[in-house]
Amino acid sequence: VSSSYSTDDETTTTTVSEKLARALDAISRESTVTYGQMLRRLDRVRVRIRVDDELFDVASDAARGLMRVEAVDGDACVVIETSRAVVRNVLAGRSTLAEVLRSGALTAHGTLRDLVAVFSALEAFVHGAIRSRATAALFGDFQTEGAVG
Amino acid sequence: MSTPEVLLDSDFFRADARALADGRPYKEWHHFVVHDGRFRLIVNFSLTDRDGEAVHRVIALARHDEWSATVDEFAATDCMVRTGRVVARFGPCEFALVEGAYDLIIQLPAIGVRGRVRLVPVSIPFVVNNQRLAAGARISWLFVPRLEAYGHVWIGDTRVSLRGAPAYHDHNWGRFRWGDNFGWEWGSVLPRNLDDPWTVVCQRMTDRHRRRATRQAMYVWHGQEPVALWCDAAVRFEHQGFLRRAPETTVPAVMRVLRPNTASDVPARLTIEGRGNDRIAMQFEPEEYVRIVVPDEVDPMGVVVLNEVSGRITARGEVAGRAMDVEASGVFELLH
Questions:
Q1: A89 touches chain B (CB under 8 A)
Q2: Residue B66 has what DSSP assignment?
Q3: Strands B213-222 and B198-206
Q4: HSE of B16 in the Cβ direction (CA atoms, 13 Å)?
Q5: DSSP code string of chain A
Q6: In which order are the strands placed within the sheet that holds A54-61?
Q7: DSSP code of residue B253
Q8: Of B253, B265, B284, which Cα lies nearest the Cα of B335?
Q9: Cβ neighbours of residue B24 under 8 Å, at least 6 residues apart?
Q10: In chain B, which residues have pLDDT < 50?
Q11: Contact assignment for A131 to B301 by CB distance below 8 Å
Q12: CA-to-CA distance for B203 and B213, rounded, in angstroms?
């Protein structure tokens, strides 16, 4: 998984996958209960995420207490496609998840059971993020890194 | 004791390094509200504990044409709080009690709000110490029911000039966690007509689900003097219907992921009555609200919602031998 890329204005921006990896690491240290909830909810549901040109997987294993960002490998249970601007707008509250799903700005494919697991884990992720000082800083950086698309 | 002396003696920061690091929850904030026609400014300097460290936040809500709101957190190295004094700086925002009035400076580029306001108390403050909120949870508060605000506030490119605008201040401190078994309703009632001498403050503490009130009161001032107080069984709060309106905004923004819906339990009308030799019947009709969402500190998968509600008030009755008939502006905080 690459760690950065250049945008049109030549500024170097951390990839979403790296920000997500840092956020997961911070939540595992600073909000252990919600991290446990994320693991239980997403256990062994491999999620493939495309954000603009980035493509990566999120893999979780509750028994080992691990959720991490990985390079794409094999089949995924759920495939999510969206853009950096949409992620930013949802985290900033300018759009709701329901709105971007309805508009097609974010698509998610998988079985109903796996989709429910992913969105349930996402809720736990946000609960963890708001209780983690390091993740709050990451959110802040993400919001201010460039013009809102 | 004069009002400036009372404020110097009682409105000081209680927080010190030990209070924030002794393993028990600690919260303290200074809260300022300016009502001026349609303009509203609510600024809260909040100091709370998190894992033994102080967290400094400025929560600001401003309405000119529409609401802007933010919750800005500042690094401790950018903040200064003087224990035992009425002075604090949180990043670029600060306030201090200077010669009997509060000097408030706000700079919040996230929402394009900045300003310099002097808040002059025109009513005698009131202090309540160490009230029980829930098991093991206590809160104290001081409030100045009426102040006059002078200065300027910029919202974007629009300058709002304040020339004696009615305002309210309170200061809360205590040991409790968001999510403990309590709820509250606080109301600041300031007349639309600046010459009107009546000022009302009301508060009700309940359990989390509002099945039981643990403490409630309504306070009335005439001019600078407190003239009536109803407590507990002498005062009645009644909610009627639901406002059925989405919040103007929700802050912090990320909380809209967890609370994207428009459902709320803000009432369509809140009636508060004080009964006895003095009597007052007050109706608050909420018009709009901003939702502040904070992480529940008891349930790691929960949140606590504070609705900052603005609306119209009518209050009628007879207090201290005087007829009361007031059209007012109300700002209520409903924590449910």
A1: no
A2: S
A3: antiparallel
A4: 6
A5: ---EEE-TT--EEE-HHHHHHHHHHHHHHH-HHHHHHHHHHHTT--EEEEETTEEEEEEEETTTTEEEEE---S--SEEEEE-HHHHHHHHTTSS-HHHHHHHTSSEEES-HHHHHHHHHHHHHHHHHHHT-HHHHHHHHHHHHSS---
A6: A66-70, A54-61, A47-51, A78-82, A107-109
A7: T
A8: B265
A9: B175
A10: none
A11: no
A12: 10
Q: Indicate if the pLDDT at residue A2 is higher than 60.
A: no
Over 60: is that where the pLDDT of A4 sits?
Answer: no
pTM: 0.91
Contacts of B260 in chain A (CB under 8 A): 93, 96-98
Confidence at residue A141, expressed as pLDDT on a 0 to 100 scale: 77
Phi, psi of B195 (to 5 degrees): -80, -10
> What residue in B sits closest to A133 (Cα-Cα)?
B50
Q: What is the pLDDT of residue B163?
A: 96
**Residue B217 forms contact with A (CB below 8 Å):** no
- Residue A108, chain B, CB below 8 Å: the answer is no
Note whether B110 contacts A: Cβ–Cβ < 8 A.
no
Distance CA B26, CA B166 (A): 31
Over residues A131-144, the pLDDT tens digits come to 988 888 788 777 77
- C-alpha B331/C-alpha B34 separation (Å) is 9
CA distance B257 to A97: 7
Contact between B301 and A31 using a beta-carbon 8 Å cutoff: no
List the structure tokens of B105. Answer: 């400076």
Nearest to A33 by CA among B103, B90, B295: B295
Token pair for residue B26? 């600690």
Nearest to B92 by CA among B161, B53, B48, B43: B43
Higher pLDDT: B110 or A52? It is A52
Do residues A44 and A38 make contact, with C-beta atoms less than 8 angstroms apart?
A: no
Longest dimension (CA), chain B: 54
Q: By the 8 A CB rule, do B94 and B88 touch?
A: yes
Distance CA(B58)–CA(B66), nearest Å, equals: 20
Q: Does A131 sit within 8 Å of B300, measured CB to CB?
A: yes
pLDDT bucket at A12, cuts 50 / 70 / 90: low
- For B246, the token pair is 């989405």
- Is this prediction's ipTM beyond 0.90? no
Does B253 contact chain A (CB < 8 Å)? yes
| pLDDT recorded at residue B10 | 94
pLDDT at residue number B215: 93
CA distance B253 to chain A (A): 5
Across the interface, whether the CB atoms of A130 and B253 are under 8 A apart is answered no
CB contact under 8 A, B257 and A136: no
